[in-house]
Amino acid sequence: MNIKKLFLAVAATLLVNGAALAADKLRMGVEAAYPPFNNKDTSGQVVGFDVDIGKALCAKMEVECEIVTSDWDGIIPALQSQKFDFLVSSMSITPERSEVVDFTNPYYSNKLQFIAKKGDDFKTDGDSLKGKVIGAQRATLSGTWLEDKYGMDVDLKLYDTSENAFLDLTSGRLDAILADKYASYDWLKSDAGKDFEFKGDAVEQSDKIGIAVRKGDALRDKLNAALQEIIADGTYKKINDKYFPFSIL
């Protein structure tokens, strides 16, 4: 084999190996501001239910995963611009979002519920909510639900993160917030949330949470297959039980 042919053969081998390496590593997008589903611990590590699920899926797909964080408001554009390969950040599957990204099968189900101070006679019917100052996270199902249903009747305050909404609730700037029940469940057990409680019934019973990928990406099928596997072999239940004393699937 002459030098030119040898060079071409080596180059082709490197190209194939490089593609294989690239296929064996994926970037997982998370907000990292939504405990207990995704947040940073005291050491700065990104942790939570979403992260554990994402890592379990990567293990089943036999790929290395790197965590990439993004602000919630720009998290779908970040996925579309290829800052990460899939988005596992407690995102509700909605028709509007499904127009711009593809979702896997749901990996948990959610509910929306009002939270207000313990002892307050806070009622959640439309007439009682008129004039109330209600908080929610911007660009979430809870924020959209409030805007659509009571946008003209309540003083709606939207926040960049759920943590900031909780801060204003504890400081008395809000009468209540509407938030995801399972994320709020964790907060209500904390020192900050001990004086607050759920009010009324859940207002959204069919909120399904999925993993988002770019439109047409075959990664969705691989993630769905891996999700089925971790549910079947008990891995999902172990992760669920780490965070909740009840199933959220």
Automatic annotation (TrEMBL):
Keywords from the named record: Signal
Q: Where is the Solute-binding protein family 3/N-terminal domain?
A: 25-247
> Which Gene3D superfamilies does its entry note?
Periplasmic binding protein-like II
Note the SUPFAM superfamilies from the entry. Answer: Periplasmic binding protein-like II
> For this UniProt entry, which segments traverse the membrane?
none
Q: Which residues constitute the signal peptide according to the record?
A: 1-22
Q: What is its main location?
A: other
Q: Where in the cell is it found?
A: Cell envelope
Q: Which Pfam families match?
A: SBP_bac_3 (PF00497)
Entry-linked InterPro entries: SBP_3_CS, Solute-binding_3/MltF_N
An example of a Gene Ontology cellular component annotation for this protein is: cell envelope
Family, similarity comment = Belongs to the bacterial solute-binding protein 3 family.
Record's protein name: Amino acid ABC transporter
Origin species? Pseudomonas rhizosphaerae
